[in-house]
Each structure stands twice: as structure tokens, then as C-alpha cells.
Amino acid sequence: MKFNKLIGLGLIALMLGACGGADQEEATEAALPAASDEISVTEAELAGNPFMEEWDTPYGVPPFSAIENAHYMPAMKKGVLELRAEIDAIVSNAEAPTFENTIVALELAGELLGDVASTFGNITGTDTDDELRALETEIYPMLTREFDAITMNPDLWQRVKTVYEQRDSLELDEQDARLLELRHRSFIRAGAAFTPDIKEQIAAINAEMSALTTKFSQNLLLETKAFTLELKEDDEIAGLSDDFKAAVWDEDKQAWVVGLNRSSYETFMVQSENRELRDKLFNGYRLRATSGDRDNGPLAIKIAQLRAKRAELMGYNSHAEYILEYNMAKTPKGAEDFLLRVWRPGLERAKEERADMQAMIGDEFTFAAHDWWHYSEKVRKARFDIDENETKPYFDLKNVREGAFEMANRLFGVTFEEVDVEGWNPVVVSFDVKDENGEHLGLFMTDMYARDSKRGGAWMSSYRGTSNINGDKIRPVITNNLNLPTPPEGDPTLMRFSDVETLFHEFGHGLHGLMTQIDYPMFSGVDGPRDYTEFPAQILEHWTSQPEMLELYARHYQTGEVIPSELVERMLAAGNHNQGFATTEYIAASLLDLRWHMLSSEEAAKITDARAFEKEVLEGYGLIPEIEPRYRSNYFAHIFSSSTGYSSGYYAYLWSEILDADGFAAFKQAENIFDPEVAARLKKWVYEAGGLKPADELYRNFRGSDPSIEPLLEGRGFAVEEAGGT
After folding, report:
1. ∠ CA(652), CA(604), CA(633), 5° rounding?
2. Burial of 654 (0-12, 13-18, 19+ CB in 10 A)
3. Dihedral sign for Cα atoms in the order 337, 338, 341, 343
4. Which of 6, 709, 666, 681 is nearest to 328 (CA)?
5. Which of 215, 268, 314, 390 has the fewest CB atoms within 10 Å, i.e. is most exposed?
6. How far is CA 52 from CA 1, 9, 472, 564, 626, in A?
7. pLDDT tens digits for 559-617?
8. Integer Rg of the chain from CA
């Protein structure tokens, strides 16, 4: 775990970049951003701390059962002190700055802090409690201040700049040159070249931002946890499938209890015949963190204001302008124009879908937003004769996961062997991953089930990244997290097809982290432009519906029968059903994200009501009242629960869909979804290459050309001409 890993984890504020001139670079003698508050830790406080010991655990995973909440803060402090000493050693080195004694030394710094921070960050996402939430409010601001003090250190910056200015004479290999380029860029974008006064202002903003984003995340988790529907009467469970009822049955409460994790929420909204309860759950979901002590609206406003102010200090017109500078979209307008090109046909299709559902309802009542999932499913059943409960028996989690592994083997030669490794929770299942030559690639740890202590959604993360500096080869520990309902003991975990797609998606991120062959942590894994890093995940979703793949994993959990071809045909025929809704709710959230972050500092300062701003934005784009954005501002964790996260970048999932649709077309053109030549290019230039080159160059190396948007539009069932323009 190295210095850069602290940044990649999102535990420390990623700072905005510089557009300043030489006059700003020269003024480095005066006051600097303050280092973190004075930190000390005693040997007594560290006694018995697992982070102070060499781990003899399998694959070097943290000794989860030995780590207690009380261990984190002393270990964090020790890690900070060690990092300070390492930075001081770099700065005070009497030798002239070189690539090895400055750039590589920075890459190696912070190992202990990285180990502690990665463990803490992962555990607070998967098994948090009140004590850990309290620690977050102390730890993250501390780390933010520490990182600012390092990246804004004038002497350290001077050494980095000196090496960079000598780059043409250093005879660096490709990876060395890329590391130097990215390290120099990271310091520039952290504000290293600015005057002390500006640095101080940036540091103050970062510290405040860290506290606000942590509070936002905690509010959301607590609000999500607090809301449940307790169902006891027959009319309250009308329409619910037996397997869903079994999954949400609470023995202690003697009731069926439905919470707000996305899988349970959508299943209930689809199945329930009780319109009143659907409305109640709908409002519970969309009105989270909108009132009282856990109202996230004021936090979202303040975060947006601070980001806009910081961008202004850096010389940018907006936070979005900064964020997108090195993304494939390049500019806020470029991202917005792209979204609108897909928004228009998507919105028109959504209006047609609304009309179809109102026609089914007739004059009984006026169709409303909380009716969409339920009646969309009714239309789907009527139109395509397909029922989710008909397909779920063929999507057993164990078989689906084995199917993903077999796909990876056929494409890339990698293998997965289940191993007995202690996880952070008893449900964790781990796999030793090897390449085609039997060489260890990494450990893959999976946590598939929802619980109150776990944040919502699905994600990939890591406990250890890849490194091969000076021949010291370290392979990663990668995790995948889903939030599937826990079935009754002894029952299989049956999945919706959308959950299958999610599993393959996160598995794609996992492979990106496992297969990397990059030496330096800074660009070894899945970090990079948001509108590119989703591509390695999203392309694998295409395999889920291919007949050759379905034969491998879609087997009835009781009989072992492969899913019948006629059922597959009906399922695939229904694949573009409700695409208007899916497209519109997603792009609405993406546009909302962009508009929050396209604000100038002056414009942001005028925002006083988050919901009013949100309403104005969405109505301006023509969003119909029957569709809510996938994420409203108050629970938009992607953009407000960390220092940068997906801010100005939520559009990236759709942008990456251009890449994944165009990329999978290469396999279809080869008439073989496992074509060895195409797979070899995908492996070399995407999964193994990390951030070795700019994203557009990596894609062209794989595909041989720039991507086309037409496969995306066609994949969503939109006629190409519907979108208009180019």
C-alpha cells in the first residue's frame, strides 16, 4: 500500500488543478497550508495493535477478527507520523532530485497508513457501526489536512518539478515516464504551483469538505436504515412472490420487513398489488435525508459552493470544468451535449411507455410515479409473456458466479479456485486467481448480501493494490460487493436478470484490478477518467445474454436444466422494454450532477434550497413528473459522499456504454464472443494496461478506431436518426 493508494481510495481529498502562471510558482517562501494538528501516539497505545505486526494471514489479508475499532486511530496516527518522516527524508535529501530518490520514493511512501486506511475504508462500507461512524468524522479531515500539507510542500514540489523538467534526458522507460507525468500532474492539480495564500484557502476548503461529505454519507446510511415497511396483513403482501417473502421475513418481529436497499425496493415496487404501500415505500426512498437533523439538502448546497469556490481559486470557471479536463468528454458542454443526444429519444419513449400504462389502468385512477415499476411489469408480461419469477430459478448465484469465472477463463485464460480465507463477514467467499500459466494474479473476495451495517449499491474495492517496484512484486486483494437479499437458510440465492448484469459488471471492475500488469500503484488499476473506467466493467454485461453463456450458467437450481431457448427469446425480446424510463431516470441524475457542478462560485452562492434548484434544473430539461431521477440530490452519494467521487462524472456510465457497445461489436463482427484475437487485444490494452496511456489511446489500441455512438442507440432500441446530430 503506497502513498498513491491513499488518493485512490478516496480517503483523502483529491484537489483541483492549477491554471496559474509563473508568478504564482515563484512565491513559495511564505506561509504554507498547515500540517495536520499535532499528532502523537504512545507505544502503550500501540501495544497489541494488529496493524503494528507482520500479518501471516493467507494472501496478506488483514486479520479481520483481531482488528477492533479501538485499533484504527492509534494505527492511523502512527501511519501519519511514518509518512511524515518519509516525506521529510525525501525533502531533506542532500542529493539532487532524481527519478528514484523523489518520484519512486513518493510512490513507496505511506505503506502503513495505506494499509490502515484501506482496511478502515472498506470496513466502514461493509460492516459499520456508531463507533466507526464517529471515527470517520475524525479520521478523514485529519487525512485531508495531512495530504494537503504534503502536496503543497514547496520544497517537495520543487524536487518533483525539477525531475519533470529533466524528463527528456532521463532515458525513462514507458512506465517510468508515465509515472513522472502523472505525479507531476497530480501536484499541479493539487495546487502546488499556487501562492501560499491560495494554498491556505484551498486547504481550508478541503478540510471543511471532508467533514461535510462524511456527514452526508452518514446521514444517508442512517436514513436508509431507519425506514422500513412492516407487513403483517394479507392485503399488505398481496402479489409478493414466495421467495421474496421468505427473504424479507423477520422472525423476531413476526412480520415481513421491507427496507430501502435497491434490490428489495425494486422487487416490492414491481410485485406489490397494494398501491398505498407502493406509494409509501416510494416516498420513503425518494425523501430520505430531506428533513430534520439528517437533512442532506444544506450539505449538498455547501459542498457545491465549496467546490465552485475552489475551482475559482484554481483558475477554472466551475468544478465541472476542472473535473472533465482529462476525461474523454473534455468539457461540461461536451458531456451535456452527449447526454442530451440520448435524452431526447429516451424521454419521448418514456412518454409512450406512460401512455401504455395509463391505457392499461383505464379510468380507475391517474397513473403516478409510484406506479411505474408495477405497471411496467404488467405491460411487459402482457406484451412479451415474460415473468421475472419464471426466469429467477435459472439464475442461482453460485451458477452465475461460476459462469462469470468461465467467461474470464475463455477470454483471458484466468482461473478461480475457492480458498479458505477469513473475511470481514461470515458471508464472504474468496478465490485464488491465477493466469494462464498458473501464476498468482490476486485474491478475489466477494460479499454478496445486504445488511444494515452495509452501504447500499454494488461496488468493487481493494484491500491491497498491485505493485512491482524494483522487482518487489505485490499482487492485489480485490473485493466485489452486492446487496442481494439473504435467502432463508438452506435456500439458494435466486437473482433477477438485472442482478446478474450487476454481478458481471462488478466482476469486470474486479478483473481490471486483478489482471493489471503495471508496476506503479499510481496507474496500475481501475483509477482513471470516469468516462473510461466503467468500460471494462460494462463490456462484460454483454456476455450475460449470449446463448453460449446462458448455456454455461443459466441452469435451474433444482433440475439443472438449461434455461429453455423460448424463454430466453422472450426474455431478450423484452430486453428493451421500459428503456425510455431507464434512460430518462439515469440521464436526469447525470444532468443534475452536471448542473450542480457547472455553477460558478457566484451562482453557487445564490442557491438556498436544494430541492428548488433540483426542480428548476429537471423541469428545464423537460422531465415528466411521473419519473424521478435515479438519484435526487439528498441521496446522491455518488457525487456528494466523498471529496470528488463521481462529481461531474455520473454521465460516465452512459459514455462508457458507447465504448462497451462498440467494443462488444468487435466480438460480434468476429462471429465469436470468445474470439482469441479480439480477446487478446482487450486483455492487453484494457485489463492489463491500467492507465499506461490516455484513455482514448488505450481504446483505439484495442478497437483499432474511435468508438461510434450508433451501437449504443441501437442497443437501447432507439432508432439512430431519433437522436439527431453527430
Report:
1. 50
2. buried
3. negative
4. 709
5. 390
6. 15, 21, 21, 56, 55
7. 999 999 999 989 888 888 999 999 999 999 999 999 999 999 999 999 999 999 999 99
8. 25
* pLDDT, position 9: 36
CB 549 within 8 A of CB 543: yes
Grid cell locating 493: 440465492
pLDDT class of 386 with cuts at 50, 70, 90: confident
Q: Tell me 51's DSSP state.
A: G
SS (H, E, C) 306-361: HHHHHHHHHCCCCHHHHHHHHCCCCCHHHHHHHHHHHHHHHHHHHHHHHHHHHHHH
CATH topology of domain 3-219: Neurolysin; domain 3 (1.10.1370)
Q: Whats the size of the chain, residue-wise?
A: 726
Spatial CB neighbours of 490, under 8 Å, sequence gap ≥ 6: none
Residues 6 or more apart in contact with residue 291 via CB below 8 angstroms? none
326 in Cβ contact with 242 (< 8 Å) = no
Torsion, Cα of 265, 269, 274, 277 (10° steps): 40
Q: Which three-class secondary structure state does DSSP give residue 437? A: coil
Query: Which of 372, 350, 367, 343 is closest to 620 using CA atoms?
Result: 343
The single residue listed with the C-alpha cell 446478474 is 500
CA-based torsion, 209, 211, 217, 219: positive or negative: negative
User: What tens digit of pLDDT does each residue of 44-56 get?
Assistant: 999 999 999 999 9
Contacts of 615 (CB under 8 A, 6+ apart): none
Q: Would you call 406 helix, strand, or coil by DSSP?
A: helix
DSSP 5-37: HHHHTT-SPPPP-----HHHHH--SS--PPPSS
Per-residue pLDDT at 74 exceeds 60: yes
Judge whether 558 and 393 are in contact, CB under 8 Å: yes
Residue 117 identity (one-letter amino acid): A
Cα–Cα distance for residue pair 131/105, rounded to 1 Å: 35
Task: Show me where the domains of the chain are located.
Answer: 3-219, 228-287
Amino acid found at 53: E
Mention every residue, 6+ apart, whose C-beta is less than 8 A from residue 68. Answer: none
Alpha carbons 656 and 167: distance in angstroms, whole number: 33
Q: What is the DSSP string of 226-291?
A: H--EEE-SGGGSTT--HHHHHHHEETTTTEEEE---HHHHHHHHHH---HHHHHHHHHHHHTTT-S
Paired residues of 643 in beta bridges? none
**Cell numbers describing residue 244:** 421474496
Q: Give the residue ranges of DSSP H helices in 598-641.
A: 601-605, 610-620, 637-640
Phi/psi of residue 479, nearest 5 degrees = -125, 150
> What is the reported pLDDT for 720?
55
In the block, which residue shows the cell 465504448? 659
Which sequence positions are flagged as catalytic?
506
Nine cell digits for residue 578: 421500459
Q: What are the grid coordinates assigned to 573, written together?
A: 425480446
Helix (H) or strand (E) holding 429: strand 429-434
In this prediction the pTM is 0.87
Strand order in the sheet with 249-250: 229-231, 255-258, 249-250
**What does the alpha-carbon distance between residue 146 and residue 3 come to, in Å, rounded to a whole number?**
12
* Partners of residue 474 on adjacent β-strands: 467
Which residue is listed with cell 454483454? 542
103: left (phi over 0), alpha (psi -120 to 50) or beta: alpha
First and final C-alpha spacing in the chain: 44
Burial class, 420, CB count within 10 angstroms (exposed 0-12 / middle 13-18 / buried 19+) = exposed
